[in-house]
Amino acid sequence: MRFQQQRVIPIFLWLGKAVIFFFVGGALIHTITMLFDYYLLNESFHINWQVNLVSSVFSVPMTPMMVIYGMSTLAMYVIWDRQKKAVLLANSIKVQSEKTEAVLKSMQRLTGILAEHIAVRNADIMNWIETRKKKGQQVSQKVEKPVREIANALQSLSAVSFVIPYTDDRPKDVNDIEKLLRSKLDETT
């Protein structure tokens, strides 16, 4: 029931607006046109302001003109409404793009800071592991595996921050960035 109301009410509202624009717009434009004709043309028709103003402005022979004016007003309203929606959509896309760009710039700065601190220490641990292996000493998997996972995670973060934003698969919003990072991290583990 509610679903039908949500679909039917906007249709009736739009139809009501259309009828109002058609009749009011058509009558208003027709009246203004008739007044221009009356005041600008020397040999125009005669309008008696007190007795037959309505019957002379809205007479039966003028009905096709009023219909055309109404249709023109309705067409202008429809075009205006569509243009308004297009501008709002373009604006929301632009705002979303700017948000995504800001998140990517922040990610790039954060990735640089993380890489500066974590990668250096992780590289020290990896060098220690390699040195021990060269000497023939055993290295615990509890140390070696997390070090490699940290290196892979940093590599994934760097790819999402610095490489992917400049490809054709550029993320369109913040959720896309998160999904992309999660998928890259899942690939490495």
> How much β-strand is present in the residues?
under 5%
Determine the number of helices (DSSP H or I, runs of at least 4 residues).
5
Structural class: mainly alpha
Rounded to an integer in angstroms, the radius of gyration calculated over CA atoms is: 35 Å
**How many domain regions?**
2
Total beta-strand segments: 0
Order of helices and strands: HHHHH
Judging from the principal axes of the Cα atoms, what is the shape? rod-shaped
Low-confidence stretches: none
| Cα distance spanning the termini | 49 Å
Structure, described:
This protein is mostly helical. It has two domains: about 1-95, no CATH class; about 95-189, no CATH class. About 80% of the residues lie in helices and about 0% in strands. It has helices spanning about 1-40, 55, 65-135, 140-165, 175-189.
Keywords:
rod-shaped, mainly alpha, 2 domains, 189 residues
Topology:
Layout: H1 2-40, H2 53-57, H3 63-134, H4 141-163, H5 174-188
Helix pairs in contact: 1-3, 3-4, 4-5
